[in-house]
């Protein structure tokens, strides 16, 4: 099983959006919730390019990414905002011996404090945005996650909350458990929709395929 992080495991999108507004204020740019939500699930450097253009600031995309990470890392170190049912489901999967991986476009330094708040054996593999050459919606992140788990993508259930992430997982060949959070997700092939992970157990996932 392969998990997305932002919006699926942890509800960090408000942290990202707040930091984006702070960036706009710092550099004299303009921003909106519409622009912010359009970045949900995206590769970070692509988001940096988008922010530079649409925020109207003269800052390199790589610096934008680093400043965003500074903000969200600081927020997560204060409080990890777990999505309902996610930690409990992961614990049940671990107890049932189901291999799990994390596939996120966030960089390792942001992922680290979240992983530190979980039992050390929660994820067997971790794929971050700074370890792939092409981020979501390209299939590379999920293809890499499946390969590291030693399974075929068609045998994998992915958990996602955004169109960008779902497109990546489906393109890789995974079936996707879609739990929309801040943005609606389009219907499509190999997509199973649920409103929440709350109350879900490992046994329930066997009946989704």
Structure description:
By secondary structure, this protein is an alpha/beta fold. The protein has helices spanning 13-27, 33-38, 44-56, 61-78, 86-95, 108-116, 140-149, 163-172, 202-206, and strands spanning 2-3, 101-103, 125-127, 157-160, 175-178, 191-193. The chain folds into two domains: 2-11 and 81-206, HAD superfamily/HAD-like (Rossmann fold), CATH 3.40.50; 13-78, Putative phosphatase, domain 2 (DNA polymerase, domain 1, Orthogonal Bundle). Strands 3-2-1-4-5-6 form a six-stranded parallel β-sheet, covered by helices on one side. The radius of gyration is 16 Å and the shape is globular.
Structure summary, number of beta strands: 6
Question: What is the helix/strand order?
Answer: EHHHHHEHEHEHEEH
Q: Order of strands side by side in the largest beta sheet?
A: 3-2-1-4-5-6
Tell the overall outline.
Answer: globular
The SS-based structural class is alpha/beta
Q: Note the gap between the termini.
A: 12 Å
**By CATH's scheme, which homologous superfamily of the largest domain applies?**
HAD superfamily/HAD-like
Give the radius of gyration. 16 Å
The fold-level CATH name of the largest domain is Rossmann fold
Q: Can you give the helix content as a percent range?
A: 40-55%
